[in-house]
Amino acid sequence: MKKLIGVMLVKNEDWILGMSMRAALKWVDELVVVDDRSWDDSLSIIQEISGENPYRVHYSLWQPMKEVETESRYKPGEKFMKQIPDNSDPWWNEMDVRQHSLLLARKHAATHVAIIDADEAFTANLLPSVRDRILSLEPGVAIDYPMVPVWGDIDQYRADDCVWSRSQLSVAFADDSSLTWKPAGDGYHHHHRLPYGISRVERETVSSGGVMHLQFAHRQRLTEKHVHYKLSEVLRWPGRKSIPEINSMYEQALDENGMKLMACPEKWWEGYRKERIVLEGKSWYYFEIRKLLKEHGKEKFAGLELHGF
Predict the structure, then answer these.
(1) Is the confidence at residue 276, as pLDDT, over 90?
(2) Distance CA 229, CA 208 (A)
(3) What's the rounded Cα separation, in Å, for the pair 179 and 25?
(4) Which of 19, 40, 172, 218 could be stapled to 276 by a disulfide with Cβ–Cβ 3.0 to 4.6 Å?
(5) Are the C-beta atoms of 19 and 116 separated by less than 8 Å?
(6) What integer is the mean pLDDT of 48-67?
(7) Are 306 and 228 in contact (CB under 8 A)?
(8) Residues 14, 15, 21, 22: what is their CA dihedral angle, to the nearest 10 degrees?
(9) What is the DSSP letter of 93?
(10) What is the pLDDT of residues 153-193, one digit of tens each?
């Protein structure tokens, strides 16, 4: 029997989670939510939506682990190694968290897995067809849908010829035991949306809509996110990319040259809880940026475009 389980990673997503979780539960059988130590109201939102959908939401708190040497309580003098939560690790180890979510989906008997970021939702006009389309995939095969970059607020999207308007998002795959998420050989944890081992990616064409990506819906939030990404690149993987390469990669999300905006059709938002989206206010990235600049000094990031930080 086929079963579609969505996997959603959460880190301080209370600004959008009340909408995006409910949107996902309209087309997946069950939803695995892995929370990486959120300190905002994400957990209370997850609990609320879980109560609305008994047995359909599977919550897990992600914590990185470390090995420590410990003396046995029962055999004095005898030591052994054990794993404990590493609360000193501040980083978002995306590949490890994604793999954890995949193992949980398998535990709950997923045959097909949907990749749903917390700031994404299918346009509602596609909901009648998307589940059956995903369940038609053979093991090891993934599917892409067009990205809809919702830009500036939640009622308009970017419709020019920018990279985001032409982008496709990998949204699901039929599971195979060989598939896995893992860091790159140098430990790099970003920008690998599909697990390794996918044999083929099918591309779905639609006449209207796709996957609404809401990271672009608020300029300041978007800026904070990508400045944080830049700092992370420099601190975690020094030398992997040059400063100009880092700037070029992350400034793409902020480039509005030639921008053309169009209103989102009402059918894209039909049945969704738009009032649960809160765009205003500082994101968690803002506070992390301030902390990293204070800890390492601004000179550590010389040459990066930090947009006033």
Answers:
(1) yes
(2) 31
(3) 24
(4) 19
(5) no
(6) 89
(7) no
(8) 120
(9) -
(10) 999 999 999 999 999 999 999 999 999 999 988 889 888 99
Q: State how far the Cα of 282 lies from the Cα of 291, in Å rounded to an integer.
A: 14
Q: What is the pLDDT of residues 210-225, one digit of tens each?
A: 999 999 999 999 999 9
Burial 60-97 (b: 16+ CB within 10 A, else e): bebebeeeeeeeeeeeeeeeeeeeeeeeeeeebbbbbb
CB atoms within 10 A of CB 293: 16
CATH ID of 4-65+80-214, from 3.30.1360.170, 1.10.10.1320, 3.90.550.10, 3.40.1550.10: 3.90.550.10
Cα 21 to Cα 287: distance, rounded to the nearest angstrom? 25
Which of 2, 1, 53 shows the shortest CA–CA distance to 32?
53
Question: What's the rounded Cα separation, in Å, for the pair 189 and 34?
Answer: 16
Instruction: Provide the token pair at 278.
Output: 């809160």
User: Is the pLDDT confidence value at 96 over 80?
Assistant: yes
What residue has token string 């794993």? 83
Q: What is the CA radius of gyration of the chain?
A: 20
Residue 218 three-state SS: coil
Runs of H (alpha helix) within the chain: 17-24, 42-52, 94-107, 127-135, 219-236, 243-251, 266-269, 284-296
Q: What is the pLDDT of residue 88?
A: 59
User: What pLDDT was estimated at residue 64?
Assistant: 66
How far out from the chain centre does Cα 48 lie?
Answer: 21
- C-alpha span between 23 and 211 (Å, rounded): 11
CB 143 within 8 A of CB 173: yes
